[in-house]
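Design a sequence for this backbone.
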């Protein structure tokens, strides 16, 4: 991207509309339209390809088009005609490639052949598959302890790849299975399991048709889950109330033109989305929700309705801990609630009234709630609010963490976790006859610490861009290159791959859009969306290179070569799982028996038109919690916060940075848009080096719109973290919080600042100082 800066141009049009259609067209034009055009009609259709974009559920009814602009970008980038060939690697040393920006690495194109790092020439060189597997196996076996190895997974892999991957790690002897979920919705799962006994959404896409109110917390669906806007629009048109909590006025949550609704599109009309937009301060949701509960309790006291405003029958039959919650919330004062939330009492009372008047309410959330120090407490307070009116386990209502990666939920279901449940391990033992390790393994942040302190010696990545996606990237990248072994299974080159260990392998795999022919015939894979629908995905495109192998094949060959001589011998037919995914699904079904409900007749059900739903106990009002009831989990407003600690150390100039996604990116994959579009709805073009700052904060700190600044972490651990040359952009933010893009700003994050209890990095709560450049 050039340094040319086009001043922020306020986007006054609704989200969606012709802008989205043009955006879809430019996704195709830059990347060779043909493979993508061939693919798009089948995206998210029965018998088609599951979009490798987000995890939002597919339409439960027939729909000719069920993909969005963002999905088109994801697909056209996977189906690109560009190639990162061995010749390309021969021409560019790894040191040279490190000078590329993230988008330039992505733009080289698809990896085409297995590569081994050659230290003498500082290049990656082609290697035979068989030799790659043998070398990796030898290096893993040479470790002094299986816990020296970590097996990272990014949530894009299918169930059929993830299952053998976790089996491999455990048969090797470790639960070191960090995944992208550790960076993402970990806190949601933890909070919900304690509150309602299950860590997944209780909402299905059908529920959106019955909700009377939908509360959207910390989420930017126009960019990250565009198909959700269609559901919000339909709900709105039927009279459902929509309330948004977000410190930024995100365009798509204000006005939306459905590019699939011809009438709206042609008349230039749009649907207003939010009935009420609460510009909460960053990290202020817990206070806002506390305020809503307080307002609800106070309104209930004053209510003349005989039943009051709470669902007393539900509370009595299904919950425990109401009195404790009531005591804690009544003990919080409105001054503190207003200060911590950044919202006026009147607005909180107003949205509490909307909540009280709705007989079926859905709450959705994403990274605005999870990437915080008090993420678990916040999500539990939200669960408390929902339980007060029985909004779990009835049509049109429920709690909905909206997951990111398209199969991050499925990967977890089939065993990718550093904290496996006993039932799952028992299943593995029953089916495969070996005793899996029970001690918890390393999560993503613990892996970072293990790399930094030298206790992790081998890193395997099933997709993802581990170091760039996590805190302290520069130090973690260096630490990776000190490993004995790095293995990356990937479609595209990224920065994490450019820090190979002593033995550094780069193994190219098929993407989801490509057909997968094995000795056992044409294969398909399965994935689980955020509403727990498991469905098939069948690739159709010709693979980017004849040398690509499927993820299940690569994983099972790595396992086979590593564990061939294991003693006692393992009863695992790796080769079968590598060539016949029906066999893998049968094994998943057998292991899941007694551990995960819903996988019965997996191979038959996955062939049904829309797949099958994994039952959610809380949605059935069955509470798999310690108490056997849904737990009200009371939390008082926190006193000790990252920002307070940082201000005590570095003074009052410290502000809170929340890192967010721009429109033209998929996590660490930054898309180059030939038209210069970076973040359409926030009006940013040609550069990503911007920091959004409110007018009062600019004035207080002595800056003005357009100034260039360096950003320094107000570090609590003494490590210096700085990024340079950021353009300050005045933006309508009422609080002192500032916003900018990840991954460029991730180097300001510290692995020490994480969500309590779930260890998710507090990517939305980074204390920084803005300094004159
Ligand atoms: N096109 C595209 N789609 C994607 C992705 C992508 O990168 N590109 N990523 C995928 C993944 S893995 C994920 S996890 C999801 C992420 O989806 P989102 O969570 O929507 O992504 P973010 O950009 O992190 O946006 C966070 C939103 O939270 C708001 N926010 C920040 N701090 C707070 C806070 O303290 N409180 C509240 N209430 N709001 C806050 C921000 O203003 C922003 O609107 O998207 C998935 N889908
Ligand atoms: N500062 C900051 N940091 C964040 C976040 C934030 O909001 N702020 N969000 C966090 C979140 S929510 C997440 S989920 C993580 C994401 O962390 P990751 O999942 O580790 O990162 P991605 O950028 O999604 O990974 C992209 C890479 O995956 C590979 N890839 C793509 N498709 C495939 C495939 O089909 N198979 C295989 N094997 N490889 C493939 C490509 O090589 C590509 O470069 O980032 C986290 N980091
Ligand atoms: Mo995510």
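Sequence:
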């Amino acid at each position: 991207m050039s340094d040319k800066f086009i001043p922020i141009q306020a986007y006054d049009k609704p989200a969606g509309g012709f802008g989205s259609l043009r955006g879809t067209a430019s996704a195709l034009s830059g990347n060779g339209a043909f493979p993508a055009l061939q693919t798009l009609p089948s995206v998210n259709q029965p018998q088609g390809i599951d979009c490798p974009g987000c995890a939002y559920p597919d339409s439960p009814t027939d729909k000719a088009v069920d993909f969005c602009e963002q999905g088109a970008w994801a697909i056209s980038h996977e189906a690109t005609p560009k190639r990162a060939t061995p010749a390309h690697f021969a021409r560019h040393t790894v040191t040279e490639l490190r000078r590329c920006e993230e988008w330039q690495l992505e733009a080289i194109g698809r990896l085409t052949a297995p590569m081994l790092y050659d230290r003498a020439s500082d290049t990656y060189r082609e290697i035979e598959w068989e030799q790659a597997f043998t070398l990796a196996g030898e290096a893993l076996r040479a470790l002094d302890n299986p816990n020296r190895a970590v097996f990272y997974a990014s949530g894009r892999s299918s169930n059929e790849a993830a299952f053998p991957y976790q089996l491999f790690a455990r048969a090797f002897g470790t639960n070191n299975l960090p995944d992208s979920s550790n960076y993402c919705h970990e806190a949601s799962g933890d909070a919900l399991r304690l509150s309602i006994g299950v860590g997944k959404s209780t909402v299905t896409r059908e529920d959106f048709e019955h909700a009377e109110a939908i509360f959207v917390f910390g989420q930017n669906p126009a960019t990250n889950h565009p198909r959700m806007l269609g559901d919000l629009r339909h709900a709105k048109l039927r009279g459902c109330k929509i309330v948004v909590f977000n410190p930024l006025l995100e365009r798509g949550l204000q006005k939306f033109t459905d590019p699939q609704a011809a009438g709206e599109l042609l008349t230039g009309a749009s649907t207003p989305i939010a009935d009420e937009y609460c510009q909460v301060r960053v990290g202020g949701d817990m206070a806002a929700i506390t305020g809503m509960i307080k307002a609800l309790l106070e309104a209930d006291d004053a209510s003349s309705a005989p039943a009051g405003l709470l669902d007393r029958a539900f509370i009595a039959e299904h919950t425990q801990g109401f009195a404790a919650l009531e005591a804690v919330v009544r003990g919080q004062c409105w001054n503190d609630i207003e200060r911590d939330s950044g919202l006026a009492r009147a607005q909180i009372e107003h949205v509490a009234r909307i909540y009280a008047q709705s007989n079926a309410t859905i709450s959705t959330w994403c990274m605005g709630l999870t990437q915080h120090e008090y993420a678990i407490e916040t999500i539990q307070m939200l669960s408390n609010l929902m339980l007060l009116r029985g909004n779990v386990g009835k049509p049109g209502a429920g709690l909905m963490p909206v997951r990111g990666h398209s199969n991050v939920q499925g990967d977890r279901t089939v065993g990718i976790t550093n904290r496996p449940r006993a039932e799952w391990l028992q299943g593995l033992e029953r089916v495969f006859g070996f005793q899996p390790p029970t001690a918890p393994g390393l999560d993503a942040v613990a892996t970072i610490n293990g790399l930094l302190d030298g206790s992790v010696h081998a890193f395997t990545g099933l997709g993802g861009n581990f170091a760039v996606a996590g805190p302290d990237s520069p130090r973690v990248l260096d630490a990776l290159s000190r490993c004995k072994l790095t293995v990356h299974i990937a479609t595209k080159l990224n920065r994490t791959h450019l820090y190979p260990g002593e033995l550094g392998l780069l193994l190219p795999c098929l993407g989801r859009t490509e057909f997968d022919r094995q000795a056992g015939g044409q294969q398909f894979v399965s994935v689980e969306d955020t509403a727990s629908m498991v469905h098939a995905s069948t690739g159709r495109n010709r693979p980017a290179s004849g040398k690509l192998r499927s993820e299940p094949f690569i994983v099972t060959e790595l396992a086979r070569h590593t564990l061939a001589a294991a003693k006692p011998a393992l009863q695992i037919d790796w080769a079968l799982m590598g060539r016949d995914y029906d066999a893998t699904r049968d094994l998943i079904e057998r292991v899941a028996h007694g551990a995960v409900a819903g996988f019965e007749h997996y191979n038959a059900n996955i062939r049904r038109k829309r797949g099958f739903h994994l039952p959610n106990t809380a949605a059935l009002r069955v509470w798999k919690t310690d108490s056997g009831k849904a737990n009200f989990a009371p939390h008082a407003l926190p006193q000790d916060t990252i920002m307070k600690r940082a201000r005590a150390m570095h003074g009052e100039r410290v502000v809170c940075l929340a890192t967010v996604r721009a429109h033209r990116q998929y996590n660490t994959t930054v898309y180059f848009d030939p038209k210069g579009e970076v973040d359409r709805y926030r009006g940013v073009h040609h550069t990503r080096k911007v920091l959004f700052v409110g007018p009062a904060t600019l004035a207080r700190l002595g800056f003005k719109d357009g100034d260039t600044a360096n950003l320094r972490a107000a570090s609590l651990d003494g490590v210096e973290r700085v990024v340079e040359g950021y353009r300050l952009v005045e933006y309508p933010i009422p609080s002192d919080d500032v916003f900018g893009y990840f991954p460029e700003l991730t180097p300001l994050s510290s692995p020490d600042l994480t969500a309590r209890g779930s260890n998710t990095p507090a990517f939305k709560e980074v204390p920084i100082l803005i300094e004159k450049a």
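The two ends are 21 Å apart (CA to CA).
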